[in-house]
Structure formats: structure tokens, C-alpha cells
């Protein structure tokens, strides 16, 4: 793949933008836990949130896999590891100590687990890993210090290193080229069924329902799919030609999934026997894969073109992602005292979040130290469409 795929750039921007709306939705969706919950909660949001939740993060990992293959072929492996580490771990460490703590402060305040103290008093206590304030909040990477919404950055680094460990021996032995030749024979049925079958078998054989391992398995699987198939011309030909079919099948599978969620899962919880578990896993993975194929197909058809704003938006993605959830939680918490109502309050939260992220990015992109802390390029390094 020698030419730049602008559709992947657009998808990266759009999916991260959708992620902001998703996390705003977490404040207002009924019955789902979050760091702060508004009194204005809606049951109808569940179906919309489930639809988005199925494919948003897997699609990002798939795009990351495509970008990773581009970068691995452009620079040495040592330079790749260095670039990946610098642009992921520096923002991650900065984020968990500086950006994430306001969310914990709001959560603990909402639950009544803090005395009447200011944020700055809380923040000084935050650096004491054995402080009694946090006795009930010890599930982080350091006792109460957690990655929170930045888990994607952490997992992307780990997944990238795991993928390299698999890729190197396959490439040296020629097996990787053999796998690519097999993929060149893709047809619509293998494209539909093989990934879904593999992911479903992994779900059933390795990871229990709802486990952290399941989320990691899905993310790593899609990073690998992107690395393998993202350069294959036949793959893009198939997804473009079949995009309407994928849309029809995706809508049908989502109807099945949402009926199952509301009539079965919401009533009695997860599957209770192996056959129900098999049906549940097949429906979930089928729905997820169909929507991803549909999105890729439509993007390849309609979004593969440059625009004067695209470079700017692509740079903005990472700072927006790092900043957005803390702005959401803090603004929603303090707006509650104004009693704005179930329509005006979320609108104001949306405006504050995007304005806050935009102002933050305008400052970040102008200062080299902040560019480093938020994962932006300093100087000339290969483009990474993470």
C-alpha cells in the first residue's frame, strides 16, 4: 500500500469523535456505572450505546494494525519500538498522574468517600499511595492510580509488541508471505465467516464472559486483522463492492442482538449454559464484524480523498482523546447544581467538552514540551496513523 489511505485518516478522526459522544452518553445512560452519573438518565440510550460499543474500539485497533504495518515497513524495528514507546508511554504516564485524577475526585465526592476538601488537597493526597482516603479504590496500576479511559494507549503498546514477536519469526521463515498469498484468495464468504469463527472460538475456549481478557482478546485480534488484511487489494475491493450487503446484514444482526439484550440478558444476566453462550458469542461477533466491514466499505468508497482540514484533525485526535473524559466528568458534575434539565444539560456538556478540547489542543500544538506529553510529533518522524 504505497499511497496514503485518506479514508483511514477520516475514520480515525470520526471514530475518536464518536468516542467523545459515547463517554458523554455514559453520564446519562440508565443503569450503567460511570465515574459520575447525572440525575437525568435515559433507558433509550442503552440501545444506541450498545450499537456503538460493539465496533468503536475494535475498529480503532484494526486501523492501528494497518498503520503499524506501514510504519514497520518504513523504519527499522528498533526505531519502530522507540517511536511507539515514546508516543504512547509518555502521554500515558502524564495522563494517569495529571489528566485522570479529576475523575477520581468527582467519583469519590459523588459517593461521599471524601471529606469536604478542595481538589488541590485531594491532589496532594493522591501522590501518597498508602493514603487512607483511597482504601476502597485500590484496583489501579498503582494502588489507586489507574489508566482509566487511557487504557487504549496502554493496550496499543502491549499489543504492538506482542504482534512484533509473532511477526518476526513468521517473516524470517517466509510463513508471513505465505499467509498473505492465502489472503489474496479472499472471497465474500471467507471474509465474512473466518474472522467471526476465529473470534468466537477464542471467546468460548479461552475467556469467560465479561472478563477483562475478553476485551484484550478482541483488541489484539483486530490489530492482527488490520496488520494482515489492511494491505490486501482484494480485501478493499470486496468491502467496497459488498458495503450495501454488509449494511443490510448488520442491521439484521443488530435487531437480533438488541432483542436478546432487552428480553434475555437484561432480565436474567449472562448465558447459563454452553449452547446459550455459543449463541450469544456468535451474535455479538457477527454484529461487530458486519458493522466494521460496512463502515470500511463505505469509507473506502466515499472518504478516500484529502481535505485541507484533515491534517489538522488528525493531529487533534490524540490530545482530544486524552483530555475529553476528564472535561466531561468535571463539567457534568458542576453543571448539576444549575438544574438545566435533561435536554439542555447534555447539550452544554457537549459544547464545553469540544470547546475545552479545542482550546487545549491549540495550546498543546504550539509548545514542544506539551506536544511530547500529548503524543504529537516533534521534528520529522514517520507519520503514524494510530
Question: Care to give the gist of this entry?
Answer:
This protein is mostly helical and 386 residues long.
What does this structure look like?
With 386 residues, the chain is mostly helical. The protein has one domain. It has 15 helices and no strands. Helix 1 packs parallel to helix 13, helix 11 (243-268) runs antiparallel to helix 12 and helix 13 crosses helix 14. The longest helix is centred in the first third of the chain and has 30 residues, at 45-74. The model is unreliable at 380-386 (pLDDT under 50).
Number of helical segments with 4 or more residues: 15
Distance from N terminus to C terminus (CA atoms, Å) equals 16 Å
Mean pLDDT: 91
Total strands: 0
Rg estimate, integer Å: 22 Å
Number of domains: 1
Low-confidence stretches: 380-386
* Relative helix content: over 70%
Alpha-beta content class: mainly alpha
- Tell me, what's the shape? globular
Which percent range describes the beta-strand content?
under 5%
Order of helices and strands: HHHHHHHHHHHHHHH
For the biggest sheet, the summary is: none
Characteristics:
mainly alpha, 0% strand, 386 residues
Amino acid at each position: 500500500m504505497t499511497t496514503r489511505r485518506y479514508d483511514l485518516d477520516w475514520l480515525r478522526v470520526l471514530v475518536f469523535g464518536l468516542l467523545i459522544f459515547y463517554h458523554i452518553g455514559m453520564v446519562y445512560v440508565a443503569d450503567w456505572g460511570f465515574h459520575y452519573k447525572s440525575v437525568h438518565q435515559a433507558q433509550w440510550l442503552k440501545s444506541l450505546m450498545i450499537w456503538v460499543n460493539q465496533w468503536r474500539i475494535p475498529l480503532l485497533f484494526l486501523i492501528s494494525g494497518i498503520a503499524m504495518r506501514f510504519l514497520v515497513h518504513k523504519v527499522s524495528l528498533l526505531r519502530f519500538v522507540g517511536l511507539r514507546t515514546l508516543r504512547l508511554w509518555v502521554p500515558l504516564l502524564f495522563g494517569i498522574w495529571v489528566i485522570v485524577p479529576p475523575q477520581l475526585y468527582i467519583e469519590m465526592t459523588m459517593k461521599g468517600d471524601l471529606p469536604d476538601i478542595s481538589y488541590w488537597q485531594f491532589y496532594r493526597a493522591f501522590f501518597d499511595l498508602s493514603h487512607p482516603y483511597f482504601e476502597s479504590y485500590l484496583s489501579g496500576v498503582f494502588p489507586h492510580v489507574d489508566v482509566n479511559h487511557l487504557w487504549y494507549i496502554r493496550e496499543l503498546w502491549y499489543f504492538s509488541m506482542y504482534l512484533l514477536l509473532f511477526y518476526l519469526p513468521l517473516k524470517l521463515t517466509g510463513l508471513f508471505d505465505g499467509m498473505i498469498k492465502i489472503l489474496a484468495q479472499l472471497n465474500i464468504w471467507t471474509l465474512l465467516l473466518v474472522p467471526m469463527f476465529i473470534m468466537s472460538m477464542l471467546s468460548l475456549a479461552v475467556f469467560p464472559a465479561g472478563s477483562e481478557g475478553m476485551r484484550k482478546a478482541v483488541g489484539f485480534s483486530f490489530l492482527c486483522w488490520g496488520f494482515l488484511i489492511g494491505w490486501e487489494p482484494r480485501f478493499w475491493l470486496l468491502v467496497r463492492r459488498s458495503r450495501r450487503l454488509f449494511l443490510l446484514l448488520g442491521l439484521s444482526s443488530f435487531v437480533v442482538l438488541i432483542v436478546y439484550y432487552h428480553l434475555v440478558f437484561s432480565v436474567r444476566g449472562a448465558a447459563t449454559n454452553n449452547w446459550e453462550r455459543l449463541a450469544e458469542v456468535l451474535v455479538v461477533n457477527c454484529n461487530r464484524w458486519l458493522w466494521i466491514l460496512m463502515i470500511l466499505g463505505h469509507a473506502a468508497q466515499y472518504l478516500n480523498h484529502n481535505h485541507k482540514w484533515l491534517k489538522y484533525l488528525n493531529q487533534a485526535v490524540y490530545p482530544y482523546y486524552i483530555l475529553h473524559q476528564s472535561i466531561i466528568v468535571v463539567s457534568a458534575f458542576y453543571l448539576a447544581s444549575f438544574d438545566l434539565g435533561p435536554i439542555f444539560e447534555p447539550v452544554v456538556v457537549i459544547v464545553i467538552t469540544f470547546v475545552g478540547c479545542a482550546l487545549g489542543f491549540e495550546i498543546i500544538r504550539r509548545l514542544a514540551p506539551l506536544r511530547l506529553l500529548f503524543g504529537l510529533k516533534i521534528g520529522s518522524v514517520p507519520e503514524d496513523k494510530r
